[in-house]
UniProtKB/TrEMBL annotation:
Protein name in UniProt: Cupin domain-containing protein
Organism: Melghirimyces thermohalophilus
InterPro entries per UniProt: Cupin_2, Hemerythrin-like, RmlC-like_jellyroll, RmlC_Cupin_sf
Residue ranges occupied by any Cupin type-2 domain in the UniProt entry: 32-100
Pfam families cross-referenced by the UniProt entry: Cupin_2 (PF07883), Hemerythrin (PF01814)
Hemerythrin-like domain span: 126-237
Residue intervals passing through the bilayer: none
Length: 257
């Protein structure tokens, strides 16, 4: 345990901003930033970290992913590791910010620790989830041109993606509905995400112009979180309610890739 007074650490310097660490360990850093009027921290990102900021004293400007915001005393901001962050004191007094850089947990690592046991009848759907995760990683990392990514998305969608969504809606959910209520937030969320994913895929595939990086990234993020939710929450729930003989019958109805 450690108790420390933030006011004791307060320090401004005419030459440049001052950073004072409160805590550092396990991939996390907590510190105070002190900026005099006119001082700035140029745009930068924090790969692998989640960023939390709280205004402690004074006010100033933040640009998060190019968007301008004013941060006053007691205002809180969160930004992800992909958001470029610029901090500039355009106020009239010293500006103090409390900052937490928290290490992001890699979902793959988390999953590797806890292998999910899947009923064999749902293997075809889980197998397709693997393709969806590969696609979502490509959309997020954007190592290829948007036009190339669009072609890959088209192939993914036409050669199984679309059919996978239909199988969940037309085979899996109706079977489940015979044994348990579909009026649950997990199912509503799953279906709403299907609608949003379909909408975003259409926007990318049918757009006249090349898709923007943001559009591709957003789809990648949504697709990834959707698949993980199904694997960790929805499918275990289905396996729990659908009787064994019905699960076996389901396996025969699902496409095998
Ligand atoms: Fe789904
Ligand atoms: Fe799915």
């Amino acid at each position: 345990m450690k108790i420390q007074s933030c006011s004791e650490l307060q320090e401004f310097d005419d030459a440049r901003f001052v950073k004072k660490n409160l805590y550092k360990g396990n991939g996390n850093v907590v510190f105070l930033l002190h900026l005099l009027p006119g001082q700035e921290i140029p745009a930068h990102t924090h790969p692998g970290k989640e960023v939390f900021l709280l205004g402690l004293q004074g006010r100033g400007s933040l640009w998060i992913g190019g968007e301008h915001h004013t941060l006053g005393c007691q205002d809180f901001v969160y930004c992800g590791d992909e958001d470029a962050l610029r901090i500039y004191n355009d106020g009239k007094e010293g500006w103090v910010l409390y900052v937490v850089l928290a290490a992001k947990k890699e979902p793959e690592v988390e999953q590797a620790k806890k292998p999910i046991k899947r009923h064999p009848s749902l293997f075809p759907l889980s197998h397709h989830h693997h393709h969806a995760l590969v696609m979502s990683r490509q959309l997020k990392q954007q190592k290829e041109e948007p036009a190339v990514l669009r072609e890959k998305l088209k192939k993914f969608w036409n050669e199984g993606g679309q059919r996978h969504f239909r199988e969940e809606e037309e085979i899996l959910l109706p079977t489940y509905s015979r044994y348990a209520s579909v009026e649950r937030p997990e199912i509503t969320e799953m279906l709403m995400e299907h609608v949003r994913i379909r909408g975003q895929v259409e926007e990318i595939l049918e757009g006249e112009e090349e898709p923007s990086g943001k559009l591709l990234y957003n789809l990648g993020t949504l697709l990834e979180s959707h698949v993980r939710k199904e694997e960790r929450i929805v499918f275990p729930m289905m396996e729990n309610y659908i009787p064994e003989e019905e699960l076996s019958r389901l396996g025969e109805l699902l496409a095998d890739d």
